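Researcher: Please predict.
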Amino acid sequence: MKNKLIENSNGTERKNNLIEIVAGILIIVMLSIGQVSGSPDLRGYSGYYNVQETSAYWGEQIHVDFAIANYGDAAGPFKVEFFVSDDSNINDGNDYSLFKGSIPGIDAWIARSYSATIYLPSTNPIGGSSPYYIGMFVDTDNEVTESDETNNKNQGIGTDYDSLTILVPEPDIKVFDSVDDDSDLTLDFGDVIDDDDGNSQATQTVTLVNNGKATLTVSQNGIYLTNGTQFQIDSILSSTQDLIDLSGGPVAMSANGKESWVVTLIFDPADTGVLNDGLTIVSDDPDESTVTVSLQGTGVPTPDILISEKDQALDFGQVPNDGTGGQASAKSITLQNSGSGHLTINQSGISINNGTNFEITSILSDTQGIIDLSSSSATIQEKESETWTIVILCDPIEDGQLTDSLTITSDDPDEQTVTVTLIAFGLTVQDIAVNKTSIDFGGVHADGSGSQLGMDTITITNHGEAQLNISSNGIYLNNGTVSELTEITSNVQGQIDINKSNTISGNLTEIWTVTVQFDPDISGQAADTLTIISNDPDETPLNIPITGTGLDEADIEVRDAVKPDDDLNVVFYPTLNDGTGNKLSEQTIILKNIGTQHLTISQISVGAGNGFSVTSINSSISGNVSLPDTINPISAENGK
C-alpha cells in the first residue's frame, strides 16, 4: 500500500515517501507449550531487519526487509512507523518519521516477514552525520493491547533498526566536446580561412551534463570566452528548456543526467596562424566550480581583391573626338587587398581589352610607388594596408557611344579575373562659326567721342557637339582706338563676362551676340581686327577685319513737327478757306547740320504755292535769317 502525501515544514507538498509493505512468508510457528496463554506481544524478529543499501542520497529510495513476531494471542490490525535517526535510539523525540503503514494483523505465536520501499526526504531533516539509523516502531499507535508495551522498538540492530550512510546530494558537472578525445577539455577547430567576419567559419560544440544527484546551477553569465575575438558563442541549447540565456541570471540543470546543454561555438578568424581562447563554465559543482575548455584553431591567410568600381561601369562622360592628343578625360579606380594574405597581380595582369579609345596611363602604389607589370607580377599588402591607383585616359578617335573593359587578373581564390566596364561618348569636335567674315561701318562723321557713331553686331555659334571654350579675355579688338566692344550676350547665359573663361554649347543650341561700336574722332579710313580665341582645333585665333571712314563735311538733317519727323512729309490740319490773311495753319521744319563743316543754305522755297508759303526762318544762334546763310556744324544751330 502507499502512504499519504507528507508536507514539508514550510507547508509545500514534497515527494511521496512512498512505502509499499509486502507481506512475506510465514517464518516460524512458535510452540506455545509451556507458555501462559494471554495478550498479544508484538516486536521485531531478530536477524530479519535489514536495510538493503549500505549508502543512499537524501531524496532516494531505500529498501527495508523486516519481520514481526507475535509472542501471544492473535493480534488485530496495527501500524508500523519507520524513522530516520542520527543515533540508535529510535523515536526519542529527535527523529524524523518516514512512514506509518498498516499491518492487517498476526496470528498467535508466529513470525512473518515483510519488505518495504521508502523514499528518504530530499534534504536532511535531523542534522547530524552518517551513519544514520533506519528503525521501526511496531504498533506505534497502541492499537493492540499487549502483554509487554515496552518492546515495540529499540530491540537491537538486525531486529528493528539498521545503520545507513546517507549522503548529501551534490551536482556533478561533466563536459564533453565534439572532437576526439571528447573529455580532454581541448577543442581544435582546425584550419579556417581568414577572410573577414561572417565568411569562412568552423563550428564545434561543447556538451554539459549534470551526473550528480542534485540540481546544477550555472552562474549568471557563467559560460563565457576569455577573449572572444576569434571565437564566439553562437547558442546554448538545453534538451529540456530550449535556448538558455544566462545574461539575466543563473539557470539550473536537472540532476541525474536527465538534461544536457549544447554550447555551439564558432571559429571565425580575424588573424592568421594558431589562435587560442578559453571557454569557461562557472557553476555550483562543489569540486569543479570552474571548468575551462581550451579552444584552438588556425587562421589560414588568403587574399581578397577589393576594387572601387567593381560593381559598376566607369563612365568618362562626353569627350570630344578631336584626335589623339587632343581633349581627353581621365578617371581612376583604386585596388586594395582586404584579405589576410598577400594578393599577387599577374604579369601584365591589368590591361584594357581593346584600347582604341582608352588607355592605362599609370599604376601607382601608395607604398611602392610606380608599379610596372610588363615584366613581372607584383603583390598588394593585406588588410587594406596598401592602395593601388590605376589612372585610365579616354582620348577618343571615334564618335558616339564608346565601350571597352579593364581586366585585372590575380591569385584571389574566388575572383581570379575581375572586369570593369569603361564607357564614354565621343563628341564631334567643337567648331566655331560666325555670321560675318568682316565688318564695314562705312562713313561716320568724325565728330568726337559720344556723338555720331556706327553700331554693328556679329554672332558666334558652335557647330560641333563638344563644348566650345572661349578663353578668358578671348574676344578683343587689336587696336580699339576708334572701335569698341560694347556688349556680349548669350541667348542661354545672358550677359557674358569676357574677363573669365566661358563655354558655348554645341549643336547650334547657343548664340552669342557681340556688339561693336565705331566712333571716329578724325577723318579718313580706319581699320581694326576683332579676334576670338577658342579651343576650336583649326580656327583659333579667328580674326574678323573691321573698317570704317571718319567723315569731315557738312551734312544736312531735315525733320518736321509731325511724327514720324524724319519722313520728309508734313501734314497740316484742316484750315478754313476764307481768303488770304484770315484763318491759317502753321507747321515747323527743322534744319540741322550734323556734319563737321559749315552748311550753306542758299534757298528755301515752296514749289507752286497753292496756299503754302514760308513765313519765317530763324536761327537758334543769330535769330532772323536772310538767305543765303550758313548753319554751324555738330548741330550747334537750328534753322526754322
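Model: Residues 531 and 543 are 5 Å apart (CA to CA).
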